[in-house]
Amino acid sequence: MTADEERDHRLRKQAALISVVVGFSMLALKGTAYFLTHSAAILSDALESIVHVFATSIALYSVVVSSRPADESHPYGHGKVEFFSAGMEGGLIVIAAIAIIYAAVRDLIFGRDLVALDTGMLLTLAASIVNLLLGWFLINRGKATNSLTLVADGKHVLTDSYTSFGVVAGLGLVYLTGIKILDPLVAIAVAVNILVAGYRLMRVSVGGLMDESDQETLVKFGDIVRRTRTPEWINLHHLRIMRSGRMHNLDFHLIIPFYWTVEEAHAFQGLVVKQIAAELQDYATTLIHLDPCIEKYCPSCRVEPCEARKAHFVRQEEWTIKAMIGDPPFIIDGDERDAVVGQLGTTPKTI
User: What is the DSSP string of 188-208?
Assistant: First the structure.
């Protein structure tokens, strides 16, 4: 582990620990507010905080595991545990929302006396402000250290904060108007908001575990290619990107001059890999399959001098994301395959 990786791991672990400690403190504060007021809305907020405590504990475990280097049993590292963490957090949020709706409907049917609303509102407001600051902190720390777990935890905490503000507003209406039915109605509104947040976290988790295409990373890679591409990058296709925590595993086919020696091609490949790693702050592993060029690429190839050129350069096509992830524009087969084989001076089994 490099010095930068050790620093990022330390910062991630520190943030996760802070989240756990604050989570327990906010649970105690909201629990006190509920026992003082008997409010369904505050109960909904307290139940969500119980979920937060469980979720932050899972997040802390995830941060520790995801920092482990790749090994024999996990050759791509342990980063995908962050997707499990986000999924479990989303699932717990959904369970909390269902429990909140149950409690609120019960209070709608049977009713409940509310007391000490002013004290309960003050305690809940204090918890809201603390969680708002914690959520911003976790998201910023997560983005700075490329941690999906911290970002997910931060979004959860922000949801908790917004929920608490909503509870305070609802209880304020109850306090001013005396309409007690507003309390369970506010609790149901809180639960719906929590359900949406839980679904979004689970959606991110499933996408990551299923190796769903990461559009943000694809766009970033496209920018890297446009900045670092040299004439020898004749064509790039079959691009695949798999994210594992903060690591990006890339593989693609790159067409290069057919007349290069193995040594020249290998050196060029190593240079490309280093360039990509540097652009992604060394959070990338890259596998490149090198393909030989054919005559049809000449009009879009800027390699000079080239004694094998069969046509003048016309223009260099733009490499869009769609083009990079798709098939090559030309496929070597038939007479063209035989021509390339003759140029190479050997008959490979496949090209």
Answer: HHHHHHHHHHHHHHHHHHHHH
Mean pLDDT of 156-176: 84
Q: Which residue has the higher pLDDT, 242 or 224?
A: 224
pLDDT of 137 strictly over 90: yes
List, in order of start, the domains of the chain with CATH numbers: 3-209 (1.20.1510.10), 215-344 (3.30.70.1350)
Contacts of 135 (CB under 8 A, 6+ apart): 154, 155, 156, 157, 158, 160, 161
Q: HSE, CB side, 13 Å, CA atoms: give it for residue 162.
A: 15
292 CB contacts (<8 Å, ≥6 apart)?
A: 255, 256, 257, 258, 332, 340, 344, 351
Q: pTM value?
A: 0.62
Alpha helices in 145-261 (DSSP H): 148-177, 182-209, 215-228
Distance CA 300, CA 298 (A): 5
Q: Which pLDDT band holds residue 255 (cuts at 50, 70, 90)?
A: very high
pLDDT tier at 252, thresholds 50, 70, 90: very high
Structure tokens at 132: 């708002």
CA 24/CA 46 separation, integer angstroms? 11
Q: First and final CA of the chain: distance in angstroms?
A: 39
Asked if residue 158 lies in contact with residue 131, where contact means CB atoms within 8 angstroms, the answer is yes
Residues 6+ apart with CB under 8 A from 36: 115, 116, 119, 120, 123
Q: What's CA 236's distance to the chain center, in Å?
A: 25
Q: Which residue has the higher pLDDT, 72 or 17?
A: 17
d(CA 69, CA 75): 9
